[in-house]
Amino acid sequence: MDQKKQYHLVVVGAGAAGIIAAIKAARDGNSVLLIEQLPKIATKLKATGGGRCNLSNTLPNEEFMASFGKNGRFITKAIELFDHKTLISFFKEIGVETNIPDGFRIFPTTHSSTTVIDALIKELNKLNVDIMCDTKVLELIAIDNNIVGLKTTTSTINTQNIVLSTGGKGYPKLGATADGYNLAASLGHKITTLHPAMMPLFTKESWQKNCTADTIPKAIITINLPKKKKIKAIGDLIFTKSGLRGPVILDFAREITPFLDKYDEVPILINMVKGKTQDDIINHFKTMAKSHGDGTVLEHLTKLIPNSIALELCKLSGANIAIKFNKLDGKTRETLVNLIVNTPFTIIGHDGFKMAMITRGGISLKQIDPNTMQSKLVDGLYFAGEIIDIDGPCGGYNLQFSFSSGYLAGSLKI
């Protein structure tokens, strides 16, 4: 049965990007339909930041874009239109106050994603945006490379403009599928290789299972492969029974997972002493020997790292924990010091998309106009959010990009 109403815009995917696109377009006087395949909208947004909803961060626009790597310049126009300051104003306008408790990450003052979602739904209703949930889009219809409508499981809907904002493949239990990629590909769009990102990693080593109670602040992680050693991340590290997690690992996973497709194992090095060098560590032991002459290797080492980790590194190096550092033989001292500043791990896997908060890869940027988010192949087809080949680190980057790209896509001229 045909849908009789003609919409100026149909938004497919009611996450952060899709919702903001619908709101922007409706505010500009357009009739808008928002389609979601799940029973409710904003399901993934509800889980963002552990339910606290880290909306964005306070980085200046240039630094924010640089955090996305080589593709960061693509989002220039989107960020100019809707940066973190605009985001704060927008949410205040719809009744959501925000705060910045650590001076960097922006949250709703309630620290609850429900507050954000309720306000967005209220605004959609106020603007008379039609919302169609439990609806799967089967086909985007284009004639002579112009959008004319789409087909769902229940109807054909007429429109000359579509925003495709169906998200990535991460966390399928929150509704993620490959449907959006397939819809884009059906109209000629290239999909770059998709990799799971922002998730824990598994290691070949197992000693870290004895250190799960401790968190390492400001750990520095690098990839120990030729020509890849400049790739690094800094942040809090947590050990698990099967590997590594924590903010620094969630960030670094986006760099690691593509390499796991090429290699069975990916070696990494972790500096757990806030960037201290081997010389710094040797000087530390010399200083401790002068001020605490009776102290053992273990006692002096625990001034730098937690006891559980100090014990494991001593075991790995063969260092006797009960004697003084200068009583160790030269080779053991050298091995221990090197382990402290460059602790090796071998990444062997992950949980795949089922635990990935974001997806690396997506619709090729070469086929999207960064000034409008419109397809370069099909007039009237726009993209927003995670479905695009853009991904950033933890800390509000990806959600801000979803809002910004959605706002730009919803600014279409009709």
Separation of the first and last Cα atoms? 27 Å
Helix content: 25-40%
Low-pLDDT ranges? none
CATH topology of the largest domain: FAD/NAD(P)-binding domain
Spatial extent as radius of gyration = 25 Å
Assess the beta-strand content as a share of residues.
Answer: 15-25%
Category from helices, strands and their pairing: alpha+beta
Instruction: Return the average pLDDT rounded to an integer.
Output: 95
Tally the beta strands. Answer: 20
**How would a crystallographer describe the biggest sheet?**
6 strands, antiparallel, barrel
Structural notes for this entry:
- The protein is an alpha+beta fold.
- It folds into two domains: 2-195 and 359-409, 3-Layer(bba) Sandwich (FAD/NAD(P)-binding domain), CATH 3.50.50.60; 200-350, no CATH class.
- The chain is built from 13 helices and 20 strands.
- It has helices at residues 16-27, 43-47, 61-66, 76-81, 84-93, 113-126, 179-186, 247-262, 278-291, 297-301, 307-317, 330-341, 397-409; strands at residues 2-7, 9-12, 32-35, 56-57, 98-99, 105-108, 130-132, 137-143, 146-152, 156-159, 162-164, 195-197, 201-203, 215-223, 232-239, 243-245, 266-271, 343-349, 358-360, 381-383.
- It has a six-stranded antiparallel β-barrel. The protein has a five-stranded parallel β-sheet with strand order 7-3-2-11-20, covered by helices on one side. Strands 1-10-9-8 form a four-stranded mixed β-sheet, with helices on one face.
- A hairpin with a 2-residue loop joins strand 8 (137-143) and strand 9.
- It is elongated, with a radius of gyration of 25 Å.
